[in-house]
Amino acid sequence: MGRPVILAESFFNTRLFPNHTLTASEEASGRDVGQIGSGRRMKALNHWTPTSTNTAAWVKVACNRVRAADMIVLDRGHNLDGKVVRIQVSSDNFTTYTEVVAITLPSATYPYTRVDEVPGAKVEEGAWLYRFPVHAGAYWRIYIDAMGAGLLPQIVGLHLGLSFSPAFPEVKPFSHGLYELDYEQTKSTAAWVGAGQISQRRTKRLHLKLADRAEYGSARYHVGQLVLRARPYWYVPDDDEAENAWFARATPQIAGLQIMGDWSEFQAEWDAVEQEPKLI
Amino acid sequence: MSVRPNDLVFFAGGECLERYGVLVKRTSPAEDVAETFTRASTGAYVAKGGVAKSAAQDIPRVSYTGSLFDTPGLLLEGAGTNLCLQSENFGTTWTAVGTPTRSAAAHTASGITLDLIGDDDAASAEGYYMPITFTGNALKTVSVDMKQGASTPASGSSFQLVDTTVPANRLVVTIAWSGGVPTVTASVGTYLGYQLRADGVYRFLFVTATTVIAANTNRVYVYPCVVNAETGNVYVGAVQAEDSLFPTSYKKTTTVAVVRSADAFSTAFLMPPQAMTLYAKFVDAGNARSTGQPGVLGIGGTTPPCLHIYGDGAGHYDVAHGNGVIGLYAASAAATAFGDTVELRAVVASTGAVSLGQAINGGAEVVSAVTAAITFASAWTTSVLWLGALDASATYKGFASFRSVKIARGNYSLAEMQEAF
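^ Those are the sequences you sent over. The predicted structure of the assembly is below.
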């Protein structure tokens, strides 16, 4: 079993990073670049798109300090399957820059997709995620090559930051996520039972075990200060099956890092539910 | 015994960047406060992958080393100036010796533009020279980027600094190539080593053997072939000449000399004087050859109560602890050299006494004697920590690439500090 990965940080989230500045090559009316860091997942209400078709486009964040990142997620609703996306980092606002990777996004979902391997993993709902070797800079940019005649990119959610992956797999019982099935039932006068809007929301109790004290600082930040402050985060239950990733949020509870009787180092347990599940 | 997480009160540098995503450790959004950093000019660095890049004004430089260019360090330097004009363009201002061949901008993959210059005269030397206007009579530093050319002369290429007034050779270097790997021989002057770039490019670093007379005519010469009877070519560029005892990071020039301003890096440091262990791991970028007191780190400024780790002007390091009444210092035994990877462990005991351990290039740690005891002051003069300096002034600027800087409450061994996160 592989290791879990949590991406709770996103440089494009200006609520988490209020001193970051987002810009884009172009912004269509009502489709400004700030929407991609909002965490909202409904494309009809929230996405960025430029104005020019068949033209290279980009979104950029100017950070308030040098920041390292190693993971990117494009949430469902993007139209970049089969298109080339470039992750770029700079320390002089792209007068010079390093291209971390250029990837042609996968068009299909495959089982046992490793999050570290090009071209990354496509989730069944359409999100794409990829973990890359750590790079650092004060400016980060996602650059999309021209997509073809009549086409322009659409991004609903973009998450870019430093992930957290403890050395140990999750403590059992383990699942990729259980399903909370919810719908209203009504019974007619003829005793027919009907269902209202059906929603299927993933839910899970995560249990992480840290290998040593060296992991505590990172765990405190990512889990204690981001996840357990109800910030939505991308959760990859197993980095060798990244196609099972989903967007989660901790529920109201008492949780945190503690040393329990069965292990000498810190552990963390918390309940999470899927953030804005896709309507069935 | 390992350092408890809550006892590691400060962690900064390239290692911190890899683990925590920022240059100074933070474990909560409230702690995610940008460090105070200024530099009044752009600055060059080597990005991950070995390609030279530029950082904008007031942006810290994270420079990568290692054979795979995957080890980041926070590069902090004092000011430096490249006196050699047209550092990447032999077609302008440079004077040809004979009729050398030149393919302009033949290499750019390393982030530095190198011309491919050649000597196709099997009887006479061909190349280029540039006069350098130095200031003050002293040893001088020159550096150059090179890559093996398409046609390699058997005896190699030559790089020189010549006083044509006396006349006298201040630097004469032969660089031979085999399989893309250079062999450098300095017949006049000192070879300080090389810095690797991407795509087989090497940055060679030299200092003159004797004092350069600034009022004389001093020229940098580049010859593709050492031997007149040979022909061949070599990729050359990034020529830099400095009024300095050691080379600093490269500054591209065109029509005028270019100044890179000093880096200034500081952050709040709220822990009052008490028993602690300070650890710094860095690659020397000039401290060892600086005749001043290049700072590694300073707490509290230069007016006691304060704590300093700094070079002594002769390649050794000192730790100094002052409580406003008495000052103590302990010194490292062995002298370090330019390019060394240095680990320093300064211990402030519960008695206020200090000692300093030093390990060079992964060798065994050698620890100094422990000083006498002094009482702790109740607070530092100012609750600020400077990296690569002792205070905000330009006086104590150091030259180093910081891999890791840690401060822990209590006293710990070198191994314990190395493993603390």
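The CA atoms of residues 75 and 127 of chain A lie 4 Å apart. Chain A touches chain B through 36 residues (CB under 8 Å).

Shout if you want it in another format.
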